[in-house]
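Predict structure. Chain length: 226.
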Amino acid sequence: MTQSKRKARIAIKHKSEKIIQIIAGVIVLGIAAWILWALTSSQKPAASLPASTGAVEKKTYAKAPDMTIDKNKKYTATFKLAKGGEFKAQLYSDKAPITVNSFVFLAREKYFDGTTFHRVLEGFMAQGGDPTGTGSGGPGYKFKNEDSDLKFDKAGVLAMANAGRDTNGSQFFITFVPTPQLDGGYTIFGQVTEGMDVVNGITRRDPQQNPNFTGDVIESVTITEE
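Prediction complete.
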């Protein structure tokens, strides 16, 4: 074999080895990405879930409500559960006025009455505010995220669920524990101030595992301002 042919065969071998290494790297990265998705997807408020038995008919709206709240006033939401018990949350009208304005509007329209906590995961959060009970419903309008210095650094944080940035509607969630992995992705607009034991007692419901029972029903959400 001539030296030129030997060099050519060596070059081809090296090229083949490099291609194999690249393919192997792509496969490894793909597996790692899948594992990361599997580990973290359950730790985010969901945008859409299997069908629920807790659907209720609600009015939809063509646009977000006009600003009617006073940023200088204190707003409190009282959640009453149909099974008994209630809890209260202070709403941050100064930090998230657009979000609080929407939530107050919907609560006063009795939009949340009869809806369920359709996704409640142990050690994470309780998600509600969807009349369809699937995670895909909403009031007919969407509004942008409101960024602030608020963090998911404690239990009882009240925040908007979304299907991506600036897709807020009516769905909200309340954390059971600190969830710093959510910082920056969701608008925080309140904090549970009374009845955290009631929040912790909300029936767990993972719709991916067992969608065939209704989550705890919200009898009413009432707003007080002072």
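Summary: The CA atoms of residues 50 and 210 lie 9 Å apart.
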